[in-house]
Amino acid sequence: MKNMEKELLCPVCQEMYKQPLVLPCTHNVCQACAREVLGQQGYMGHGGDPSSEPTSPASTPSTRSPRLSRRTLPKPDRLDRLLKSGFGTYPGRKRGALHPQVVMFPCPACQGDVELGERGLAGLFRNLTLERVVERYRQSVSVGGAILCQLCKPPPLEATKGCTECRATFCNECFKLFHPWGTQKAQHEPTLPTLSFRPKGLMCPDHKEEVTHYCKTCQRLVCQLCRVRRTHGGHKITPVLSAYQALKDKLTKSVTYILGNQDTVQTQICELEEAARHTEVSGQQAKEEVSQLVRGLGAVLEEKRVSLLQAIEECQQERLARLSAQIQEHRSLLDGSGLVGYAQEVLKETDQPCFVQAAKQLCNRISRAAEALQTFRPAASSSFRHCQLDVGREMKLLTELNFLQVPEAPVIDTQRTFAYDQIFLCWRLPPHSPPAWHYTVEFRRTDAPAQPGPARWQRREEVRGTSALLENPDTGSVYVLRVRGCNKAGYGEYSEDVHLHTPPAAVLHFFLDGRWGTSRERLAISKDQRAVRSVPGLPLLLAAERLLTGCHLSVDVVLGDVAVTQGRSYWACAVDPASYLVKVGVGLESKLQESFQGAPDVISPRYDPDSGHDSGAEDATVEASPPFAFLTIGMGKILLGSGASSNAGLTGRDGPAASCTVPLPPRLGICLDYERGRVSFLDAVSFRGLLECPLDCSGPVCPAFCFIGGGAVQLQEPVGTKPERKVTIGGFAKLD
Hints:
GO terms for molecular function: zinc ion binding. Residues 44-75, 600-620 are annotated as: Disordered. It is found in: Cytoplasm, Cytoskeleton. Residues 490-724 form the B30.2/SPRY domain. By secondary structure, this protein is an alpha+beta fold. Among the domains are: 1-43 and 101-144, 2-Layer Sandwich (Herpes Virus-1), CATH 3.30.40.10; 243-400, no CATH class; 411-502, Immunoglobulins (Immunoglobulin-like, Sandwich); 512-597 and 626-640 and 660-715, SPRY domain (Jelly Rolls). The chain is 27% helix and 23% strand. It is built from 13 helices and 40 strands. The strands form 10 sheets. Strands 21, 23, 24, 26, 34, 35, 36 and 38 form an 8-stranded mixed sheet that branches. A hairpin with a 6-residue loop joins β3 and β4 (113-117). α9 (338-347) packs antiparallel against α10. Residues 49-76, 78-98, 547-552, 598-613, 616-622, 643-657 and 723-736 have low confidence and may be disordered.
C-alpha cells in the first residue's frame, strides 16, 4: 500500500478522506468539505440530511473538525437574494409554489460544475469502500498513532471503546459517563475505537433502504422503491450481484494486464523521463533562439536609430550654417558696421574718379542687400517635420509577433480530384491557415488483404504545390487518400479522408477519327481529336418542314482510331446534357464500316443506328451476340431498355424491368471484356453499373459515337498527359 497516499487525499482539504461522498462525476470529497464548499457558494439547507449530523457530545462546536470553524457564512444581502430567487420560504410564499432550484457543486478535481439535484448532498452515496481503504492504510503506516478520546478534557486519554450509535470514541470513564446505567444509551454496544463510523450497509439516500439493484442507464445504485418509481421507468436495471461481478471481472482483468506488463510500464516511464529531459533541453534552446532573434531585432533597431539620428544631426548643422551666414549678412546692414558702414565712408569721398571706381562694385552689393531686405526669408526652415517616423505598421507587426503555427488541415477539392489512368489529387488550405512549405500525401488500398497491426499508409514526402499525381494505381480498387501540410513549426493535421474508385480495367487511350462516315461536314472534331460536336445546320431545319412528306434524316457517326482485339479495356467520356440524341458504345469494326459507310438515310430521329443490341432496342430473340452495343442518351437522360440486362435496381424478380430513364451522370464509363464478349456501361464518378450487354467479339472492336440532331461528346483526358499549370503566389512558384 506504499505510495498510495496521493489517491487517498481529499482535493479540498488535502487530508485523508473522512466520510467521503461520491459526486455524480465519480470524484470523491469529504462530507464536511462538501458542506463547507456549498456554504461558500451560498447554498443553505442543502448540506444533507440533518439526521446525518453527529448527535453525540462529540458533535459540539468545541470538538468538531477545525475545518468547520473556518466555514464562512454568506453575507446578509446574498441570503436575501437567495430567498427571493426560490431558496427556503418567506412570508407570503407557499412552499413548492416555485420550481425548486437545482444545486450545482464545483468539483475541485475536474474543475466543472456538477449537478446535485434538488436535495443537494442528501442525494449522494457515501463511499464506504474508500473509507475502509483509508482505514487500512492508516493502520499499515501508523498514521496518527493512537486514537484519543473525543470527550475528555485536555489532555485527552487514549480511547478504548467506540460507539456506532453515538459516532464517537471514548475512554473507559467517558463511556460510563455518557452511557449511564438505566438509560436507553446504556443499551449501545461498544466497539473497537475507530476514526470512521460506517453504517452496516450502503443505504439509499432517498428512501433509507439498502440498495439491491444497479441502474445501467443512470449508472446509479437503487433500492426496491427506486426500482418501481417512474424515475427509472424503462431503464436497464440489474441486481447488484451482477453489476458487482461484471465490474470486478473488468477491474481484475485491467489490473492483471497492467501487472503483467510491468516491463512495458517501466520502459514507458524511461521514455517519458527521457522526453522530460529532452523537453528541458529543447525549451532552453528555444529560449536562447528567441532571445537571440529579439537581440538581433534590437541590434537592427539600434543601428537604425544611430543612422536616423546622424541624418538629423547633419541636416541640423547644415541649416545652422546657412542661418548663421544669413545672420552675419544682416548684421553688416546695421548702421556704422559692416557693408553699410563701408558704404557710408565711401560716400565721403570727393574725388569723382576715385568714387566711381570704388562705388561701382559696392553699388551692386548694396542693391542685392536692399533687395534681400525687401524679400526677407530665412535661409533654412526651423521645422523637422520631414524627419518624423511612421511606425504604425512596424508596431503592428511587433505586436502580432508570435510563434509560427503549423498549417491547418487541408481541404481536398472533390470536384477536381478523380481517378482515371492515374489518380489526380487536388487540395487547398483554409483561408486563415498559416502557410505550408510543402505537403505529405498518404494513400492506401482499402480492399487490400488484411495485415497484422495498424493500417500501413504509402507516403509521398515534400510535395510542392497543391496537387499530386499517384501513378500506376491498381485497377478495380478503392483508395483512401489524405494530405497534411508542413512548415518550420512542424506537421499540421491531416485532411479528411477521401475515397476514390479506380477504373475496373486498364484505360484505353485513343483519338477520334472522322475521316469516314456519312455527313462528315456536320461533325466538328477538335484539334486535339478528343471532342466532337454534331451541328445539324440548315439541312435539318429545311427537312423539318417536309418531315411528314417523306424527308429523311441522317445519322452522324465518329469512331475511335484504335481497335481492341484482346483483354479488358476502359474509357470514359462526357456527353453534353443538351444533346438531342447521342449513342455511345462499341461495335465490330467491319460491321460499323458496312453499316455506316455510305448508308442510306433513315426516316426518323428515333431510328436505332445499329442493327444489333441497343439499350432501347426490342427484346432479342436470337441467341447470337449482336455486333453493336450502344447506350442511348438524350435530353439529359439515359434510356435503359427492356432488352438489356442491367444491374441491381433495374431488374426485378421475374426478369428485366421495363424501359426506364435515369439522370445522365457527369461522365460515362465503358468497360469492354473482349474474352467474355461483354460490355458494361458505368457511372464514371461513382462507378455504379448502369447497363451490361453482350457483344460479338469475333473481330476487332472499336469505340463508336452516333449523333442524330445536335450533340457533343468529350473524351476524358488521361491524367498523365495533363499539363501542370504554374501559379505564382507571394513570390513563390508552385504547381497547380
